[in-house]
Specification:
GO terms for molecular function: flavin adenine dinucleotide binding; long-chain-alcohol oxidase activity. Keywords: FAD, Flavoprotein, Oxidoreductase. The protein is of the alpha/beta class and 640 residues long. The protein has three domains: 3-116, no CATH class; 142-227 and 230-264 and 299-406 and 578-639, FAD/NAD(P)-binding domain; 413-490 and 512-573, no CATH class. 32% of the residues lie in helices and 15% in strands. It is built from 19 helices and 23 strands. A five-stranded parallel β-sheet has the order 9-3-2-13-23, with helices on one face. It has a five-stranded antiparallel β-sheet with strand order 16-17-14-20-21. It has a four-stranded mixed β-sheet with strand order 1-12-11-10. A hairpin with a 2-residue loop joins β10 (344-352) and β11. The chain is globular and about 70 Å long.
């Protein structure tokens, strides 16, 4: 980074979050710049750590800003220059906002949190902090023999590893992320992204259309998800049976798997307290005559703490969460001799005469200073690295057939904020304690759920589209009064996963299916009407170019304008926390990767054990469906 580029980048930070004279500034919020909380240093460090090609692209952008007089321009002119750069500047602006509002200082606080109404992470519960699993840490190249090797340890892989180990199989689990227990979780947002999320937190698809959130670590998404437990709907089960050959999924045998998982996870609705956003959702649903239900959650009631539950997406320090680590992997390791290697990226699956023979990969220490080759010889390989990474393993291995990486579903989510004129205390209580399924099958079996989201300061700020520094600060000044609703779309269309030049996975997703477009716009409209019926004084759709609605203005005109926002980069802000279908099961090898049992069409002994096996999008939070299918797959592995 040249001196000129550094100067431009630091000034860009203070342009996105500038110092503004304001009469109501007792806490210094309006006067505080990004650099006053060292966000500029964080941005510089992040850019310095980027791959060379990406870093040079940022440098070229900064050169372009400098050529337009950015360094000598006044604030208003700098904002115009940033606007003229278009979508190219959005990731940098988002990073500035993420750090300005999410990064704690040396004391564990952030001066902006006072205005946002956020008290900081909950105090650590007084519980015994244990680390029951001791992963293998190679001193040199590691070669292991096993009956089964499981790649990934999330909702699917963790369960399958536990089932196979309990049945007496010698199991090795290879996890690319790291092992964290309640002893490690502090519920700081940015720390959690770095430690427990794929690629360090929110990352866009290659086309910038959707921001992806996925777990990365022992236990995968079950360690950082919001514990929303929903059984697979009969509608989806029939579709999978009738159209994709999973005939048993529509019958009582799959009920058995669902019931078993439900029981093992201690699923309950007795720890789903409503925060004020949920109360608003309830009011609005009642006023509109819409369905409304309390969410069931995989949670230990004896350890429940509603304050700690508010930060579930950043790890659970109480030990109440019934993740795959707690329920399946700890017993597998401590009771049945399973071995775990964390920090191990699997390169490819080994075959012998067309059958599974094991895997090869590379282990890296957490500080990056040591590494070792890892080889596991096993006749059963369970691929459960998640729908964004499992296709990469198959593509690097040259197996799986033509459908590998295709049919990626994302459950795209729209977000709408309601300003209720009072502190919503969104940081308290389970992030998803209620839902509305009124529109789950609004057209041809497809539709959307309405849910709430976890309170975040960094991600929340970065998701709020930047127009000018003053406008964004105005929005953040009222952040404590916002309640958020999302529309979770069951997508019929799909994207794909490919490999880049370095052999890493790249996700692509363009929302173009006509049914999906209609349902996404229906979801935005429903969110607006729900906020209005609940008594919101203002409504803000997360999307570029749409000023918020204020009480007294024409609601129907606002809904019409919201319906014109492009559903792609530069338009609506879309998220995905559910990735599915990229190694899907089915009867046809031309359109599916695995057969209806979950075993690869072209490579016996390789089984798909995660959400990438879904024939279609589930239309619900997928954890229970993943685990029920994994329970089914584990039985298939054992019976052959």
């Amino acid at each position: 980074m040249t001196d000129l580029r550094t100067q431009v980048l630091r000034l860009l930070c203070d342009t996105v979050v500038p110092s503004i004279d304001h009469p109501d500034d007792a806490d210094g919020f309006w006067a505080r710049r990004a650099s006053d909380v060292a966000a500029d240093l964080g941005v510089l460090a992040t850019v310095a750590a980027m791959p060379a090609e990406q870093r040079e692209a940022v440098g070229a952008l900064l050169d372009g800003l400098a050529a337009q007089g950015f360094l000598t321009a006044a604030q208003a002119r700098r904002e115009q220059i940033l606007a003229s750069a278009g979508p190219a500047v959005a990731p940098l602006a988002g990073l500035v906002l993420l750090l300005t509002y999410g990064m704690p200082d040396a004391t564990g606080g952030n001066p902006n949190w006072t205005r946002l109404g956020y008290p900081g992470p909950a105090p650590r519960p007084a519980v015994a902090l244990q680390r029951p699993i001791t992963p293998l840490r190679p001193d040199g190249d590691l070669a292991l023999e096993a009956d089964a090797v499981v790649i990934g340890s999330g909702a699917g892989g963790g369960l399958i590893a536990g089932r196979l180990a309990a049945a007496g199989a010698r199991v090795v689990v290879l996890e690319a992320g790291r092992y964290r227990s309640e002893a490690d979780f502090r519920q700081f947002e940015l720390e959690a992204y770095q430690q427990s999320y794929r690629r360090g937190g929110p990352t866009p698809t290659a086309d910038q259309n959707i921001t992806l959130m996925a777990g990365a670590g022992l236990g995968g998404g079950t360690v950082i998800n919001w514990t929303n437990c929903i059984r697979t709907t009969d509608r989806v089960r029939r579709q999978w049976a009738d159209e994709h050959g999973l005939t048993d999924v529509a019958g009582p045998d799959f009920d058995r798997h669902l019931d078993t998982v439900w029981r093992e996870l201690s699923v309950t609705d007795r720890c789903s307290e409503f925060n004020r956003a949920h109360e608003a959702m309830h009011r609005g649903a009642e006023a509109l005559g819409w369905s409304f239900a309390t969410v069931h959650r995989n949670w230990d009631e004896k350890r429940h703490d509603a304050l700690v539950a508010g930060g579930l997406g950043f790890g659970d320090p109480s030990g109440a969460k019934r993740s795959t680590v707690k329920v399946y992997l700890e017993p597998a390791v401590t009771g049945h001799g399973a071995r775990v290697v964390d920090g191990c990226r699997v390169d490819r699956i080994l075959t012998d005469r067309g059958r599974a023979a094991g895997v090869t990969g590379r282990w890296t220490s957490e500080d990056g200073r040591r590494s070792a080759a890892v080889t596991v010889r096993a006749p059963i390989v369970v691929l459960a690295a998640g729908a964004l990474e499992s296709p990469g393993v198959l593509l690097r291995s040259g197996i799986g057939g033509p459908a590998v990486g295709e049919h990626l579903r994302l459950h795209p989510c729209t977000v709408t904020l309601g300003n209720y004129g009072t502190d919503m205390r969104g940081w308290w209580g389970p992030p998803q304690a209620a839902l509305i399924d009124e529109f789950a099958a609004v057209e041809d079996g497809y539709g959307f759920l309405m849910e709430s989201v976890q309170y975040t300061t960094g991600l929340g700020a970065s998701a709020m589209p930047f127009t000018t520094g003053a406008e964004h600060k105005e929005a953040m000044a009222g952040y404590r009064d916002f309640g958020s609703f999302i529309g979770l779309i069951r997508d019929r269309g799909h994207g794909r996963v490919t490999l880049d030049a370095g052999g890493e996975t790249t996700a692509w997703y363009d929302l173009t299916d006509e049914l999906d477009l209609r349902n996404t716009r229906r979801a935005v409209e429903a969110e607006i009407r729900l906020h209005h019926a609940a008594g919101a004084r203002g409504i803000r759709v997360l999307g570029h170019g749409l000023p918020p609605w204020q009480a007294g203005e024409d609601l129907e005109a606002f809904i019409a304008r919201a319906g014109e926002i492009p559903l792609r980069a530069g338009g609506a802000v879309l998220f995905s926390a559910h990735q599915m279908g990229s190694c899907r099961m089915g009867a046809d090898p031309a359109t599916s990767v695995a057969d209806p049992r979950g075993e690869l069409h072209d490579t016996p002994g390789v089984w798909i054990g995660d959400a990438s096996a879904f024939p279609t999008a589930s239309g619900t939070n997928p954890m229970i469906t993943i685990m029920a299918l994994a329970s089914r797959t584990a039985e298939m592995c054992l019976t052959g």
